[in-house]
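New to this. Please check both lines:
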Amino acid sequence: MTTTNITVTGMTCGHCEAAVKEELGALPGVSDVAVDLNAGGDSPVTITSEAELDAAAIRAAVDEAGYEVK
């Protein structure tokens, strides 16, 4: 298992958190996504996957959810 830590900006509520979790969770090999929501600030996100994830794919998934990787 591989753990990837990113920081996402712009999330303000549980709905935001759910959107990011859904998009990241859809990436191939991802088994878990944990978000430590810091409403209106920078929120740490931990992604657990079977193998190393492509940084561009992570950014695209977060962007699709409407947020930005810091």
The longest strand covers residues 2-9.
